[in-house]
């Protein structure tokens, strides 16, 4: 008799880690010299340890260490022969290059979610080509980075670490991320963005950069943002609005000259488009700015509204991760923990998307995260288990001998 489809020789944690190719880890490790000066606690061991902490939402090194000790025999399957001491983990968090975890996240994202090629951009839908940029701050309840930012009138300083994120609308995942002190300007991410021709980017007005926006226009990259009061705008023509658009709250569609001819180097002059919209929900007017002259006003509005998806991403990560207590009180340790949190989120999203592809049971992200945390060391087939969780656990608890006995009893 063959074993049940729900049985697995590897626990769920090992199956999750199988989504990270070992060749990818080895390559990134060599590029960043992540194993330099380390004899026993290698970069792979460090990665597994921090992912264990992320999935279990450990709040201290002691909690992490005792958890590893309790599952030491299961970690042997991954090639981890010795459980690291608290001091070993602490030292590695303080000294190992953050670049290893940063590069690994981005390479892993590209491995599972390849960006569209320039040749296929016309065949892709708008959502497939849409990118959203924004930032979120994680507060730090310690003296780390206390000098970040200017001193306010009440004598306090802005403390925290900020994640500057470029998210793809289709995957709802960060495709590019930078971690900085909370006081850093949001525009720090803009020069580092590498967008392909045909891409669309929706951004808040805090990211407005005239020079970069003109470069994007020349590369056939569409951008959508909001008009700011400080913008130098000159009306060129008024586009005629359709009755359908007026009914949907479109107030005006203008072609304008953006920029100041007197400061050409800083804010180069370019032709753009302003679309004014009345939001019936908030009862406020919104003025959108774009370099696209072919999309309808309602399409431009929908593209900008998609920008709120990145707020849901930030909410998802913060709600399903332990970001109140960090395992180290130095910038290096905090950055490593945040990158491992992003890797954990990426692995969970990979599982969720694979279930969707199979047409299996639909999971909310929070429920899926909870199930994975509870069954991290259950020896059960991950994808089959998540497709039929209750039935899978009943079969798993019976064991193969009981299942085979039942098959014999009821086989007439």
Automatic annotation (TrEMBL):
Organism domain of life: Bacteria
UniProt record, GO biological process: DNA transposition
Domain Transposase IS4-like: start-end pairs: 128-341
GO molecular function, one term: transposase activity
InterPro entries cross-referenced by the UniProt entry: DUF4372, RNaseH-like_sf, Transpos_IS4, Transposase_11
Family (UniProt): Belongs to the transposase 11 family.
Name of this chain's protein: Transposase IS4 family protein
Species whose genome carries this gene: Chitinophaga pinensis (strain ATCC 43595 / DSM 2588 / LMG 13176 / NBRC 15968 / NCIMB 11800 / UQM 2034)
